[in-house]
Design brief:
Low-confidence stretches: 420-438
Strand order of the largest sheet: 6-5-4-7-8
Largest sheet: 5 strands, mixed
Radius of gyration: 30 Å
Strand content: 5-15%
Distance between the termini: 40 Å
Helix content: 40-55%
Number of helices: 18
Structural class: alpha/beta
Number of strands: 8
Length: about 475
Protein backbone atom coordinates (compact mmCIF):
# COMPACT_ATOMS: atom_id res chain seq x y z
CA UNK A 1 0.00 0.00 0.00
CA UNK A 2 1.37 3.42 -0.99
CA UNK A 3 1.31 5.55 2.14
CA UNK A 4 3.07 8.64 0.74
CA UNK A 5 0.15 9.85 -1.44
CA UNK A 6 -2.15 9.42 1.53
CA UNK A 7 0.13 11.46 3.78
CA UNK A 8 0.38 14.15 1.11
CA UNK A 9 -3.42 14.29 0.84
CA UNK A 10 -3.82 14.57 4.59
CA UNK A 11 -1.11 17.24 4.72
CA UNK A 12 -2.97 19.32 2.16
CA UNK A 13 -6.21 18.84 4.07
CA UNK A 14 -4.43 19.78 7.30
CA UNK A 15 -3.11 23.01 5.76
CA UNK A 16 -6.53 23.87 4.35
CA UNK A 17 -8.34 23.30 7.65
CA UNK A 18 -5.85 25.32 9.68
CA UNK A 19 -5.82 28.15 7.16
CA UNK A 20 -9.43 29.07 7.88
CA UNK A 21 -10.71 30.64 11.10
CA UNK A 22 -8.07 29.21 13.45
CA UNK A 23 -8.46 30.46 17.03
CA UNK A 24 -7.29 29.21 20.44
CA UNK A 25 -10.88 28.11 21.05
CA UNK A 26 -11.08 25.71 18.08
CA UNK A 27 -7.44 24.58 17.83
CA UNK A 28 -7.95 21.27 19.64
CA UNK A 29 -11.16 20.42 17.76
CA UNK A 30 -9.45 21.05 14.41
CA UNK A 31 -6.55 18.78 15.36
CA UNK A 32 -9.04 16.09 16.40
CA UNK A 33 -10.95 16.42 13.12
CA UNK A 34 -7.76 16.05 11.07
CA UNK A 35 -6.81 12.96 13.08
CA UNK A 36 -10.23 11.37 12.55
CA UNK A 37 -10.07 12.12 8.84
CA UNK A 38 -6.64 10.50 8.57
CA UNK A 39 -7.89 7.32 10.29
CA UNK A 40 -10.85 7.05 7.89
CA UNK A 41 -8.67 7.65 4.83
CA UNK A 42 -6.12 5.10 6.07
CA UNK A 43 -8.87 2.48 6.53
CA UNK A 44 -10.28 3.16 3.07
CA UNK A 45 -6.82 3.02 1.49
CA UNK A 46 -5.99 -0.29 3.14
CA UNK A 47 -9.22 -2.00 2.00
CA UNK A 48 -8.93 -0.58 -1.53
CA UNK A 49 -5.31 -1.79 -1.64
CA UNK A 50 -6.40 -5.26 -0.54
CA UNK A 51 -9.13 -5.33 -3.19
CA UNK A 52 -6.72 -4.27 -5.94
CA UNK A 53 -4.00 -6.70 -4.87
CA UNK A 54 -6.40 -9.64 -4.91
CA UNK A 55 -7.69 -8.62 -8.33
CA UNK A 56 -4.18 -8.68 -9.79
CA UNK A 57 -2.96 -11.92 -8.18
CA UNK A 58 -2.04 -14.63 -10.68
CA UNK A 59 -3.65 -17.36 -8.56
CA UNK A 60 -6.90 -15.42 -8.47
CA UNK A 61 -6.99 -15.05 -12.25
CA UNK A 62 -6.55 -18.80 -12.66
CA UNK A 63 -9.37 -19.61 -10.25
CA UNK A 64 -11.91 -16.79 -10.59
CA UNK A 65 -13.64 -14.62 -13.14
CA UNK A 66 -14.40 -11.05 -12.12
CA UNK A 67 -18.12 -10.37 -11.93
CA UNK A 68 -18.20 -6.71 -10.93
CA UNK A 69 -16.56 -3.98 -8.86
CA UNK A 70 -18.85 -1.62 -6.99
CA UNK A 71 -18.70 1.01 -4.31
CA UNK A 72 -19.59 -0.08 -0.77
CA UNK A 73 -20.42 2.15 2.16
CA UNK A 74 -19.61 0.70 5.58
CA UNK A 75 -20.30 2.05 9.05
CA UNK A 76 -17.23 1.30 11.14
CA UNK A 77 -16.30 2.00 14.75
CA UNK A 78 -14.32 5.05 13.59
CA UNK A 79 -16.86 6.45 11.11
CA UNK A 80 -18.34 5.92 7.64
CA UNK A 81 -16.02 4.73 4.85
CA UNK A 82 -16.51 4.29 1.09
CA UNK A 83 -14.51 1.54 -0.58
CA UNK A 84 -14.27 -0.63 -3.70
CA UNK A 85 -15.55 -4.19 -3.46
CA UNK A 86 -14.93 -6.69 -6.28
CA UNK A 87 -16.95 -9.89 -6.53
CA UNK A 88 -15.88 -13.07 -8.34
CA UNK A 89 -17.27 -16.30 -9.78
CA UNK A 90 -15.34 -19.52 -9.30
CA UNK A 91 -14.49 -20.98 -12.71
CA UNK A 92 -15.01 -24.57 -11.56
CA UNK A 93 -17.91 -24.40 -9.09
CA UNK A 94 -19.67 -21.17 -10.14
CA UNK A 95 -19.65 -20.14 -6.48
CA UNK A 96 -19.87 -16.49 -5.60
CA UNK A 97 -16.91 -15.01 -3.73
CA UNK A 98 -16.36 -11.54 -2.26
CA UNK A 99 -12.91 -10.99 -0.67
CA UNK A 100 -14.13 -7.98 1.29
CA UNK A 101 -16.60 -10.19 3.18
CA UNK A 102 -13.79 -12.62 3.85
CA UNK A 103 -11.38 -10.11 5.39
CA UNK A 104 -14.04 -8.31 7.46
CA UNK A 105 -16.31 -11.33 8.13
CA UNK A 106 -19.32 -9.52 6.72
CA UNK A 107 -22.68 -11.05 5.90
CA UNK A 108 -24.35 -10.08 2.62
CA UNK A 109 -25.91 -6.61 2.85
CA UNK A 110 -24.19 -5.98 6.20
CA UNK A 111 -23.34 -2.28 6.53
CA UNK A 112 -22.18 -2.25 10.15
CA UNK A 113 -18.78 -3.89 10.58
CA UNK A 114 -18.39 -6.48 13.34
CA UNK A 115 -16.06 -4.13 15.23
CA UNK A 116 -18.77 -1.45 15.10
CA UNK A 117 -21.36 -3.93 16.36
CA UNK A 118 -18.97 -4.97 19.12
CA UNK A 119 -18.54 -1.35 20.24
CA UNK A 120 -22.34 -0.89 20.25
CA UNK A 121 -22.88 -3.98 22.39
CA UNK A 122 -20.01 -3.06 24.71
CA UNK A 123 -21.41 0.44 25.21
CA UNK A 124 -24.89 -1.00 25.81
CA UNK A 125 -23.55 -2.89 28.83
CA UNK A 126 -23.29 0.34 30.79
CA UNK A 127 -25.76 2.71 29.09
CA UNK A 128 -29.21 2.58 27.54
CA UNK A 129 -29.68 1.93 23.83
CA UNK A 130 -30.29 5.58 22.93
CA UNK A 131 -26.96 6.58 24.49
CA UNK A 132 -25.22 3.73 22.70
CA UNK A 133 -26.69 4.82 19.35
CA UNK A 134 -25.37 8.35 19.84
CA UNK A 135 -21.98 7.80 21.45
CA UNK A 136 -20.63 4.27 20.87
CA UNK A 137 -19.25 4.96 17.37
CA UNK A 138 -16.89 7.81 16.57
CA UNK A 139 -18.13 10.49 14.19
CA UNK A 140 -21.34 8.53 13.57
CA UNK A 141 -24.83 8.48 15.02
CA UNK A 142 -27.11 5.54 14.24
CA UNK A 143 -30.72 4.82 15.19
CA UNK A 144 -31.77 3.35 18.51
CA UNK A 145 -33.73 0.66 16.65
CA UNK A 146 -30.49 -0.56 15.04
CA UNK A 147 -28.91 -1.04 18.46
CA UNK A 148 -32.07 -2.78 19.65
CA UNK A 149 -31.95 -5.20 16.69
CA UNK A 150 -28.28 -6.02 17.32
CA UNK A 151 -28.96 -6.75 20.98
CA UNK A 152 -32.04 -8.82 20.15
CA UNK A 153 -30.05 -10.95 17.67
CA UNK A 154 -27.54 -12.15 20.29
CA UNK A 155 -27.88 -15.89 20.56
CA UNK A 156 -25.08 -17.06 22.86
CA UNK A 157 -23.53 -16.45 26.24
CA UNK A 158 -20.13 -16.06 27.88
CA UNK A 159 -18.68 -18.91 29.88
CA UNK A 160 -17.36 -17.08 32.91
CA UNK A 161 -14.87 -18.88 35.11
CA UNK A 162 -15.79 -19.11 38.80
CA UNK A 163 -12.70 -19.72 40.92
CA UNK A 164 -12.80 -21.20 44.39
CA UNK A 165 -12.41 -18.62 47.12
CA UNK A 166 -9.15 -18.85 49.07
CA UNK A 167 -10.74 -17.30 52.16
CA UNK A 168 -13.86 -19.03 53.37
CA UNK A 169 -16.11 -16.45 55.13
CA UNK A 170 -18.18 -17.38 58.18
CA UNK A 171 -21.25 -15.50 56.97
CA UNK A 172 -22.75 -15.22 53.50
CA UNK A 173 -25.45 -12.75 52.48
CA UNK A 174 -27.98 -13.33 49.70
CA UNK A 175 -30.34 -10.47 48.86
CA UNK A 176 -33.21 -10.76 46.40
CA UNK A 177 -35.71 -8.39 44.83
CA UNK A 178 -37.59 -7.96 41.55
CA UNK A 179 -37.38 -5.78 38.44
CA UNK A 180 -40.25 -4.43 36.36
CA UNK A 181 -39.97 -4.06 32.59
CA UNK A 182 -42.36 -2.70 29.94
CA UNK A 183 -42.96 -5.06 27.02
CA UNK A 184 -43.73 -4.23 23.42
CA UNK A 185 -47.42 -4.22 22.50
CA UNK A 186 -48.30 -3.53 26.13
CA UNK A 187 -47.89 -5.46 29.34
CA UNK A 188 -45.38 -5.52 32.15
CA UNK A 189 -42.98 -8.28 33.15
CA UNK A 190 -41.68 -8.84 36.66
CA UNK A 191 -38.61 -10.99 37.15
CA UNK A 192 -36.29 -11.74 40.08
CA UNK A 193 -32.76 -10.52 40.62
CA UNK A 194 -30.28 -11.10 43.42
CA UNK A 195 -26.84 -10.35 44.80
CA UNK A 196 -24.48 -12.54 46.82
CA UNK A 197 -21.74 -11.03 48.97
CA UNK A 198 -19.58 -11.58 52.07
CA UNK A 199 -20.49 -8.40 53.95
CA UNK A 200 -18.63 -5.08 54.06
CA UNK A 201 -15.07 -4.76 52.85
CA UNK A 202 -14.49 -2.26 55.68
CA UNK A 203 -17.22 -1.56 58.22
CA UNK A 204 -15.55 1.46 59.87
CA UNK A 205 -15.76 3.78 56.83
CA UNK A 206 -18.75 5.99 56.07
CA UNK A 207 -19.13 4.92 52.42
CA UNK A 208 -19.23 1.14 52.69
CA UNK A 209 -18.64 -1.33 49.88
CA UNK A 210 -19.76 -4.93 49.71
CA UNK A 211 -17.09 -7.62 49.50
CA UNK A 212 -17.00 -10.05 46.54
CA UNK A 213 -20.42 -9.03 45.29
CA UNK A 214 -22.02 -11.08 42.52
CA UNK A 215 -25.17 -10.13 40.57
CA UNK A 216 -27.85 -12.49 39.21
CA UNK A 217 -30.82 -11.76 36.95
CA UNK A 218 -32.58 -13.39 34.00
CA UNK A 219 -35.96 -12.43 32.57
CA UNK A 220 -36.71 -16.05 31.60
CA UNK A 221 -36.03 -17.62 35.01
CA UNK A 222 -38.54 -18.12 37.79
CA UNK A 223 -37.61 -17.59 41.44
CA UNK A 224 -37.02 -21.33 41.84
CA UNK A 225 -34.74 -21.46 38.80
CA UNK A 226 -32.78 -18.39 39.88
CA UNK A 227 -32.25 -19.99 43.29
CA UNK A 228 -30.74 -22.99 41.49
CA UNK A 229 -28.34 -20.69 39.62
CA UNK A 230 -27.35 -18.97 42.87
CA UNK A 231 -26.79 -22.32 44.57
CA UNK A 232 -24.54 -23.46 41.72
CA UNK A 233 -22.43 -20.30 42.06
CA UNK A 234 -22.15 -20.56 45.87
CA UNK A 235 -21.31 -24.25 45.66
CA UNK A 236 -18.51 -23.60 43.14
CA UNK A 237 -17.21 -20.50 44.93
CA UNK A 238 -17.29 -21.68 48.55
CA UNK A 239 -17.56 -24.72 50.81
CA UNK A 240 -21.24 -24.50 51.70
CA UNK A 241 -20.97 -26.77 54.71
CA UNK A 242 -18.41 -24.47 56.35
CA UNK A 243 -20.63 -21.39 56.63
CA UNK A 244 -21.63 -20.46 60.14
CA UNK A 245 -24.80 -18.91 58.76
CA UNK A 246 -26.31 -17.83 55.44
CA UNK A 247 -28.69 -14.87 55.54
CA UNK A 248 -31.38 -14.41 52.89
CA UNK A 249 -32.96 -10.96 52.88
CA UNK A 250 -35.65 -9.21 50.88
CA UNK A 251 -39.15 -7.82 51.02
CA UNK A 252 -40.73 -11.14 51.99
CA UNK A 253 -42.26 -12.02 48.62
CA UNK A 254 -43.25 -15.71 48.30
CA UNK A 255 -40.61 -16.35 45.62
CA UNK A 256 -37.82 -15.10 47.88
CA UNK A 257 -38.80 -17.53 50.61
CA UNK A 258 -38.37 -20.47 48.24
CA UNK A 259 -34.68 -20.38 49.12
CA UNK A 260 -35.36 -23.36 51.43
CA UNK A 261 -35.17 -25.72 48.44
CA UNK A 262 -31.48 -24.83 47.95
CA UNK A 263 -30.42 -23.39 51.31
CA UNK A 264 -32.58 -25.18 53.91
CA UNK A 265 -30.53 -23.92 56.88
CA UNK A 266 -30.44 -20.26 55.84
CA UNK A 267 -32.07 -17.54 57.94
CA UNK A 268 -34.53 -15.12 56.38
CA UNK A 269 -34.30 -11.41 57.25
CA UNK A 270 -37.08 -9.03 56.27
CA UNK A 271 -35.66 -5.89 54.66
CA UNK A 272 -35.79 -3.17 57.37
CA UNK A 273 -36.72 -0.55 54.79
CA UNK A 274 -39.87 -2.43 53.77
CA UNK A 275 -40.67 -3.22 57.39
CA UNK A 276 -40.37 0.31 58.80
CA UNK A 277 -41.11 2.55 55.84
CA UNK A 278 -43.63 0.55 53.82
CA UNK A 279 -45.59 -1.48 56.37
CA UNK A 280 -45.30 0.24 59.75
CA UNK A 281 -45.07 3.56 57.93
CA UNK A 282 -48.43 3.03 56.19
CA UNK A 283 -50.26 1.85 59.30
CA UNK A 284 -48.94 4.53 61.69
CA UNK A 285 -48.50 7.34 59.14
CA UNK A 286 -44.82 7.80 60.00
CA UNK A 287 -45.62 8.65 63.63
CA UNK A 288 -42.21 7.77 65.08
CA UNK A 289 -43.50 7.14 68.60
CA UNK A 290 -46.28 4.78 67.49
CA UNK A 291 -43.92 2.95 65.12
CA UNK A 292 -41.43 2.37 67.95
CA UNK A 293 -44.17 1.10 70.26
CA UNK A 294 -45.47 -1.26 67.55
CA UNK A 295 -41.94 -2.49 66.83
CA UNK A 296 -41.40 -3.23 70.53
CA UNK A 297 -44.66 -5.24 70.67
CA UNK A 298 -43.65 -7.28 67.60
CA UNK A 299 -40.13 -8.13 68.77
CA UNK A 300 -41.37 -9.16 72.23
CA UNK A 301 -44.23 -11.34 70.94
CA UNK A 302 -46.88 -8.95 72.30
CA UNK A 303 -48.99 -9.56 69.23
CA UNK A 304 -52.40 -8.84 70.76
CA UNK A 305 -51.14 -5.45 71.89
CA UNK A 306 -49.85 -4.84 68.36
CA UNK A 307 -53.26 -5.72 66.88
CA UNK A 308 -54.96 -3.38 69.37
CA UNK A 309 -52.64 -0.58 68.29
CA UNK A 310 -53.53 -1.25 64.66
CA UNK A 311 -57.24 -1.22 65.55
CA UNK A 312 -56.70 2.20 67.12
CA UNK A 313 -55.33 3.42 63.78
CA UNK A 314 -58.21 1.85 61.85
CA UNK A 315 -60.67 3.74 64.02
CA UNK A 316 -58.87 6.95 63.06
CA UNK A 317 -58.77 6.07 59.32
CA UNK A 318 -61.78 3.77 58.71
CA UNK A 319 -61.55 4.11 54.91
CA UNK A 320 -58.09 2.51 55.01
CA UNK A 321 -59.11 -0.53 57.06
CA UNK A 322 -58.60 -2.99 54.17
CA UNK A 323 -55.05 -1.83 53.45
CA UNK A 324 -54.05 -1.48 57.12
CA UNK A 325 -55.08 -5.08 57.78
CA UNK A 326 -53.14 -6.17 54.70
CA UNK A 327 -49.97 -4.52 56.02
CA UNK A 328 -50.60 -5.91 59.51
CA UNK A 329 -50.96 -9.48 58.21
CA UNK A 330 -47.81 -9.05 56.12
CA UNK A 331 -45.89 -8.16 59.28
CA UNK A 332 -47.39 -11.07 61.23
CA UNK A 333 -46.40 -13.48 58.44
CA UNK A 334 -42.78 -12.31 58.63
CA UNK A 335 -42.17 -12.31 62.39
CA UNK A 336 -39.06 -14.48 62.18
CA UNK A 337 -37.63 -12.28 59.42
CA UNK A 338 -38.17 -9.19 61.60
CA UNK A 339 -36.56 -10.73 64.68
CA UNK A 340 -33.58 -11.95 62.65
CA UNK A 341 -32.74 -8.32 61.94
CA UNK A 342 -31.18 -8.29 65.43
CA UNK A 343 -29.21 -11.52 64.96
CA UNK A 344 -25.69 -11.00 66.32
CA UNK A 345 -24.17 -12.33 63.09
CA UNK A 346 -26.29 -10.10 60.83
CA UNK A 347 -23.95 -7.16 60.27
CA UNK A 348 -25.09 -5.86 56.86
CA UNK A 349 -28.58 -4.48 56.35
CA UNK A 350 -30.25 -5.32 53.05
CA UNK A 351 -29.34 -2.79 50.35
CA UNK A 352 -30.99 -4.57 47.43
CA UNK A 353 -33.22 -1.63 46.49
CA UNK A 354 -30.19 0.52 45.71
CA UNK A 355 -28.44 -2.22 43.76
CA UNK A 356 -31.55 -2.92 41.69
CA UNK A 357 -31.85 0.74 40.77
CA UNK A 358 -28.16 1.24 40.03
CA UNK A 359 -27.56 -1.95 38.03
CA UNK A 360 -30.90 -2.64 36.34
CA UNK A 361 -33.93 -0.40 36.92
CA UNK A 362 -32.39 2.81 35.59
CA UNK A 363 -31.88 1.09 32.22
CA UNK A 364 -34.99 -1.10 32.09
CA UNK A 365 -37.81 -0.05 34.44
CA UNK A 366 -37.37 3.66 33.72
CA UNK A 367 -37.08 3.11 29.96
CA UNK A 368 -40.00 4.69 28.05
CA UNK A 369 -39.62 2.04 25.35
CA UNK A 370 -41.06 -1.46 25.46
CA UNK A 371 -38.75 -4.47 25.16
CA UNK A 372 -39.25 -7.61 23.11
CA UNK A 373 -38.85 -10.73 25.23
CA UNK A 374 -35.55 -11.71 23.59
CA UNK A 375 -34.31 -8.12 23.59
CA UNK A 376 -35.10 -7.81 27.30
CA UNK A 377 -33.27 -11.02 28.14
CA UNK A 378 -30.17 -10.01 26.18
CA UNK A 379 -30.12 -6.46 27.54
CA UNK A 380 -30.37 -7.85 31.06
CA UNK A 381 -27.59 -10.32 30.29
CA UNK A 382 -25.31 -7.44 29.26
CA UNK A 383 -26.17 -5.48 32.40
CA UNK A 384 -25.32 -8.48 34.59
CA UNK A 385 -21.95 -8.90 32.86
CA UNK A 386 -21.19 -5.23 33.48
CA UNK A 387 -22.35 -5.33 37.10
CA UNK A 388 -20.03 -8.31 37.65
CA UNK A 389 -17.19 -6.24 36.15
CA UNK A 390 -16.70 -8.48 33.11
CA UNK A 391 -14.71 -6.68 30.42
CA UNK A 392 -16.30 -7.67 27.12
CA UNK A 393 -13.72 -8.74 24.51
CA UNK A 394 -14.23 -9.14 20.77
CA UNK A 395 -14.08 -12.92 21.31
CA UNK A 396 -16.89 -12.60 23.88
CA UNK A 397 -18.93 -10.67 21.35
CA UNK A 398 -18.53 -13.42 18.74
CA UNK A 399 -19.67 -15.97 21.33
CA UNK A 400 -22.70 -13.83 22.13
CA UNK A 401 -23.54 -13.36 18.46
CA UNK A 402 -22.94 -16.84 17.05
CA UNK A 403 -23.00 -19.17 20.06
CA UNK A 404 -20.41 -20.77 22.26
CA UNK A 405 -18.22 -22.33 19.58
CA UNK A 406 -14.53 -21.62 19.73
CA UNK A 407 -13.52 -18.38 18.04
CA UNK A 408 -11.47 -20.26 15.41
CA UNK A 409 -14.41 -22.45 14.48
CA UNK A 410 -16.70 -19.44 14.30
CA UNK A 411 -14.28 -17.66 11.97
CA UNK A 412 -14.10 -20.66 9.64
CA UNK A 413 -17.86 -21.02 9.51
CA UNK A 414 -18.39 -17.30 8.92
CA UNK A 415 -16.16 -17.52 5.86
CA UNK A 416 -18.21 -20.42 4.53
CA UNK A 417 -21.49 -18.66 5.20
CA UNK A 418 -20.60 -15.23 3.85
CA UNK A 419 -19.20 -16.45 0.54
CA UNK A 420 -22.31 -18.33 -0.53
CA UNK A 421 -24.28 -16.44 -3.16
CA UNK A 422 -27.66 -15.99 -1.54
CA UNK A 423 -29.48 -14.49 -4.50
CA UNK A 424 -28.69 -17.19 -7.04
CA UNK A 425 -30.82 -20.23 -7.76
CA UNK A 426 -29.63 -23.16 -5.69
CA UNK A 427 -28.22 -25.86 -7.95
CA UNK A 428 -27.73 -29.56 -7.36
CA UNK A 429 -23.99 -28.92 -7.04
CA UNK A 430 -24.56 -27.84 -3.43
CA UNK A 431 -25.90 -31.22 -2.42
CA UNK A 432 -22.40 -32.63 -2.76
CA UNK A 433 -20.84 -30.04 -0.44
CA UNK A 434 -20.54 -32.33 2.59
CA UNK A 435 -17.49 -30.41 3.81
CA UNK A 436 -19.63 -27.55 5.08
CA UNK A 437 -20.85 -28.35 8.58
CA UNK A 438 -21.93 -25.34 10.61
CA UNK A 439 -22.45 -25.83 14.34
CA UNK A 440 -23.06 -22.20 15.21
CA UNK A 441 -26.31 -20.30 14.69
CA UNK A 442 -26.91 -18.95 11.21
CA UNK A 443 -27.00 -15.15 10.82
CA UNK A 444 -30.28 -13.31 11.14
CA UNK A 445 -30.93 -10.67 8.50
CA UNK A 446 -33.00 -7.55 8.83
CA UNK A 447 -35.17 -8.50 5.85
CA UNK A 448 -37.55 -11.45 5.59
CA UNK A 449 -36.51 -12.42 2.04
CA UNK A 450 -32.88 -12.82 3.07
CA UNK A 451 -33.86 -15.05 5.98
CA UNK A 452 -35.94 -17.21 3.64
CA UNK A 453 -32.96 -17.66 1.33
CA UNK A 454 -30.66 -18.76 4.13
CA UNK A 455 -33.33 -21.17 5.37
CA UNK A 456 -33.34 -22.76 1.91
CA UNK A 457 -29.58 -23.23 2.16
CA UNK A 458 -30.05 -24.64 5.65
CA UNK A 459 -32.20 -27.44 4.22
CA UNK A 460 -29.51 -28.47 1.75
CA UNK A 461 -26.42 -28.32 3.97
CA UNK A 462 -25.85 -30.77 6.79
CA UNK A 463 -26.03 -28.40 9.73
Amino acid sequence: MKIIPLINEITNTFNQIFKNNLTPLNLESKIRDVGDLFILKLYESFLNFFDEQFKNKKEQKNEYNIKQTRKRTLITSVGVININSTSYINKNTNEYYVPLRDILHLKPYQRLTNEAEYQLIKYSMKENMSQSARHALRNTIISRSTVSKKIKALNGSINETITKSNNQPDVLYIEMDEIHANLQHGGNKIYPCAIVHEGYEEDFVKRKKLKNIRYFADSELSYEELWEVIFDYVNRKYDIDKFKVIFVSGDGAPGIKKYTNCFPNAKFVLDPFHYFAKHLGYIFKNDIELKNIADNYIRNNMLEDFKTLVKYQIDKYPKQEKYMKKHMNYILNNLDGIKNQNDEDYKVHCSMEGHVNQAFARYITSSPYGFSKQGLRNKLKLLVYHANKHELTIEDYYNLKYGNNSVDEININIKKITNIKYDQKLSTNYSNRNDIIINCSLPIFDFKDNNNKINDINKIFSI
